[in-house]
Amino acid sequence: MTSRGTLNGRTALVTGGSRGIGAVTALRLAQEGADVAVTYVRGKDAAEEVVRAVEALGRRAVALRADSADAEEAAGAVDRAAEALGRLDVLVNNAATGLMGPLEDMSLADVDQLLAVNVRGVFLTSQAAAAVMTSGGRIITVGSCVTQRVPGPGATLYAMSKSAVIGLTKALARELGGRGITANAVHPGPIDTDMNPADGPYAPAQAAMTALGRFGTAAEVASLVAHLAGPEAAYVTGAEFSVDGGHAA
After folding, report:
1. What is the pTM of this model?
2. Which residue spans adopt a coiled-coil conformation according to this UniProt entry (predicted)?
3. Within-domain flag for 1
C-alpha cells in the first residue's frame, strides 16, 4: 500500500494491538504517518514485534501492558500513551473478549468478565481519551457483525456487550461533537485471524452467512479504520460501518 500521509504528525492508541485486527490496524495507521501505541495483556513478544514493524516505517511506537478488564489499567493506558507519544489524536477501541455458548451456561463470572472488557473498558478508555484529545480527535470502536444480525443461538452475552458500544458511540458523538472530536463504530464480520482462521472448523458455516461467501481480512477492516481516523472523515460521526461481506444483508 502506498501511504498518502493522511495521519502525518498524528498519534494513535490501538488497544489489543498485539495481534489480529489490532496489529494490522496499528501498522496501517503507521503507514499513513501516525505514531502508534498498542496495548497487550499476555502477548508481549507479539506487541514488541508490532512496535518494531512500526519503527521500520519511520514512526515512533510503544507497547504498553494494560488489561482492559482492570478499570485502572484501561483508563491509565490512555495517559501512558499520550505521555509516551506527546499527545493523543486517535483512539481505536479494539481490545475485546469473546465467549459463545448456551444462555443457561453463562455464569455471573462470565457476564462480569465480558462486560468489564467489552463495555466498561471501552467506556473508560474513551472517557480518558476525551480528556486529552483536542479538536480533530477520533474515537473508533471495533464492534461486531452480531450487532446487526445474530444468525444463531449461543451469542447472547457477546452480542449484548458489543451492542452496548453502539449506544456509547452515538452518545460520544453528541457529547464531543462541539469540540471537533468524532466517534464511530466499525463492525467486522468473519475475519481471518489466528483466533478465527478462514480454514478453521467453523469457517465454512461462517463464510456461508456472508453475501460474498468468504472471510474478510484484517487489512480490509484496518483500511476503514484508517479512513475514519483521517481528515477526509471529519464530518462522519455517530455512525456504524459494517465490514462483514454482507453478513447483515
Report:
1. 0.95
2. none
3. no
Contacts of 84 (CB under 8 A, 6+ apart): 37, 62, 64
Q: Count structural domains, the chain.
A: 1
Which residue range is the domain that position 145 belongs to?
A: 11-243
Cell numbers 458523538 correspond to 173
What's the sign of the alpha-carbon dihedral 122, 209, 239, 195? positive
Print pLDDT tens along the chain (249 aa).
556 789 999 999 999 999 999 999 999 999 999 999 999 999 899 999 999 999 999 999 999 999 999 999 999 999 999 999 999 999 999 999 988 889 999 999 999 999 999 999 999 999 999 999 999 999 999 999 999 999 889 899 999 999 999 999 999 999 999 999 999 999 999 999 988 899 999 899 999 999 999 999 999 999 999 999 999 999 999 999 999 999 999
Say whether 40 is catalytic: no
Residues 6+ away with beta carbon under 8 Å from 46: 18, 19, 23, 40
Amino acid residing at 148: Q
**Cell numbers that stand for 187 in this block:** 463492525
Q: Looking at the domain assignment, is residue 4 inside a domain? A: no
Does residue 173 lie within any of the structural domains? yes
The answer to whether 97 and 114 have CB atoms below 8 angstroms apart is yes
Residues near 205 by beta carbon (within 8 Å), at least 6 away in sequence: none
Q: Which of 40, 158, 202, 235 is catalytic?
A: 158
Q: What is the C-alpha separation between 30 and 56, in angstroms, rounded? A: 10
93 within domain boundaries: yes
